[in-house]
Amino acid sequence: MALLIASDLHIDMAGKPLLRGVSFKLERRERMTIAGRNGAGKTTLLRMLAGETSADRGELSVPRGVRIALHDQRPPRERGRPLREYVLSGCAEELQIEAELAELESRMAAGAADEPTLARYSRAQARLEARGGYLWRDRATAMAHGLGFVDADLHRPLDTFSGGQLTRASLARALATSADVLLLDEPTNHLDIESLEWLEQTLVGIDAAVVLVAHDRWFLEAVGTSVLELEGGRSRFFAGSWHAWRREQASREIALGKAIDRQQAEIARMERFIERFRYKATKARQAQSRVKKLSKIERVERDRSDGQSLEFSFAAPARSGRVVFELTGGLIEVGDPPVTLLEHAELWLERGEHVSLVGPNGSGKTTLIETLAGRRPLAAGRLSTGHNVHVGYLSQHADELGAGGQPGQSVLDATQRATGLTPNKARALLGRFLFSGVEAEKPLDGLSGGERRRLSLAVLMGSDSHPPNVLILDEPTNHLDIESREALEDALRAFAGAILLVSHDRALLDAVGTRTVAVEDRSLRSYVGGWPEYVRVRDARRTGELDADGGAGAGPADT
Predict the structure, then answer these.
(1) What is the C-alpha to C-alpha distance for residues 235 and 44, in angstroms, rounded to an integer?
(2) Per-residue pLDDT tens over the stretch 497-522
(3) Residue 330: pLDDT above 80?
């Protein structure tokens, strides 16, 4: 039985068409990903499926008793309640059944033993058993643990958590419901790799239908079983994996290009005939016939957004010394009193190396690369920088964009200040990053997360004086759509200088990294090879196939 059927849904936004004729059917254990450019209506469709908004036309059919849960990027409203209470609040039916059982138990303890009371109690117990019995609270706690929360966090009020932690709390709440249909908007945001892998296994294993919106290509391939493509307001359903859909999409693009070329050639031939013969008496009737035919042709066109893509290309870097960075006996601390994140840390980076730095959230990756970039002091140890090293640094939240600038500065102002480019050159650079015309005059403090990331990448690539020969990048794909991630991936692979990359985007790590450094037990360990080789050795160590030192599979250890 289908859990959800959408038929010919039409949705308008601000009086303008957003989606037209969206139709699909969702079965249990199907995991459908919604694909489309930013602004295509993905989040709006999810909220409509959740019943938060209604369609302007069409029908959404949900069988009676089917439960739907939505996770999106909006933070919880009630910030004073503890995390455990917030996560459990998504299980409204379980809470209601428990309250009913408590009331009935109180009545029976007072002497009520009539048949209706006993029957109600039996029915309530059966309903609770169908929801996992009295272990449903343990299920909710397990979801929070899987997403990186510890027991001590469960008692903390929501207003003591960061924005990223609140997003994870919302996801835990949705997963804890055991809903029949899970609607997940960017569930991979703010998750480290361990939590991502846990979430993949959880979603693949649950007996529910899942609808996903995400930009993590590795995650989409691991989880998705079908794709609903939104383009130009229309939808197209594809039964198959994410990569199978991408191949089919590429084939369609090739076919569309050929169709456009054929139609344009035919139109050009008709227009030439009309121009040559429309005023000749012997050919006038044929010319007029072609004019009418030409006016009735339905033009084959690409979506207007198809031409809007980022253009990444790094300038050829100057040659640095063989060793770019060398850290020995490093002590990395934060806070007052200081908390040790890394000790006795050893790290090196050589010219042209592309190194991935991985580890759990909070393990010290960002603090370490800030130290290497000269943005915070080393608590102890020795850090050596090689000859002719020019560092390009990209922070996780693009905080450097507004540093040193006037309040209310525009995108163009910030770009000129950060790069030293002339206004014309700065505008040309911004145009490559989709800030054309009036977009370049937008106030910096009004940019979205995706716009800030695009701007920070433009600044990173735009310096005329000393193009970087070393890139230190902290979560560079945050807030970028898939097309932009792939463009960045291509540019980084082609970069001739050294790269130190912190990312939870496993597709990026797989494509770019040639060596992996992992934060393990407050120290650093180096693994020869890229992401797949690191995962192979890590998993073998977990299963006991290799000893704690990694055996022959691990590269030279930093520690």
Answers:
(1) 14
(2) 999 999 999 999 999 999 999 999 99
(3) yes
Distance CA 284, CA 278 (A): 5
> What six digits make up the tokens of 79?
């910030």
Instruction: Pull the structure tokens for residue 337.
Output: 């009193």
Q: What is the DSSP letter of 157?
A: B
Q: Are 6 and 181 in contact (CB under 8 A)?
A: no
Residues 44, 11: contact at Cβ < 8 Å?
Answer: yes
Residue length of the chain: 559
Residue for token digits 């939240």?
Answer: 397
DSSP letters, 60-103, are: EE--TT--EEEE-SPPPS-TTSBHHHHHHTT-HHHHHHHHHHHH
CA dihedral 456, 458, 463, 467 (to 10 degrees): 90
Q: What is the mean pLDDT of residues 339-355?
A: 94
Rounded distance between C-alpha atoms, residue 28 and residue 271, angstroms: 54
Q: How far is CA 265 from CA 270, 272, 291, 457, in A?
A: 9, 11, 16, 39
Condensed to tens digits (0 to 9), the pLDDT of residues 447-462 reads 878 888 889 998 888 7
Question: What's residue 90's pLDDT?
Answer: 83
Residue 557 has pLDDT above 50, yes or no: no
**Is the peptide bond prior to 337 cis by the omega test (within 30 degrees of 0)?**
yes
Reduced to 3 states, what is the DSSP secondary structure of residue 346? strand
Separation of alpha carbons 313 and 494, rounded Å: 9
Q: In what order do the strands lie in the sheet with 57-61?
A: 16-26, 4-13, 57-61
Cis preceding-peptide flag for 476 (omega within 30 of 0): no
Rg of the chain's alpha carbons, rounded to an integer?
A: 28
Percent of the chain past pLDDT 90, that is, above it, reads 45
Indicate whether 548 pLDDT > 60: no
d(CA 158, CA 176): 17
| DSSP one-letter code for 555 | -
Question: Is residue 541 over pLDDT 60?
Answer: yes
Write out the two tokens for 434: 């989709």
* Band of residue 559 on the pLDDT scale cut at 50, 70, 90: very low
DSSP 422-446: -HHHHHHHHHHTT--GGGGGSBGGG
Q: Considering the chain, what percentage of its residues have pLDDT values greater than 70?
A: 91
295-323 tens-digit pLDDT:
777 776 665 544 466 777 888 889 999 99
In angstroms, the CA 467 to CA 280 distance is: 63
How far does CA 100 lie from the centroid of its chain?
41
CA distance linking residue 261 with residue 267, whole number of Å? 10
Tell the residue number behind the tokens 């609770």, with chain if given: 128
Distance (Å, whole) CA 404 – CA 401: 9
**Of 517, 494, 504, nearest to 356 (Cα)?**
517
Residue where the block lists tokens 């097309």: 483
- The DSSP result for 249-281, as a single string, is HHHHHHHHHHHHHHHHHHHHHHHHHHHHHTT-T
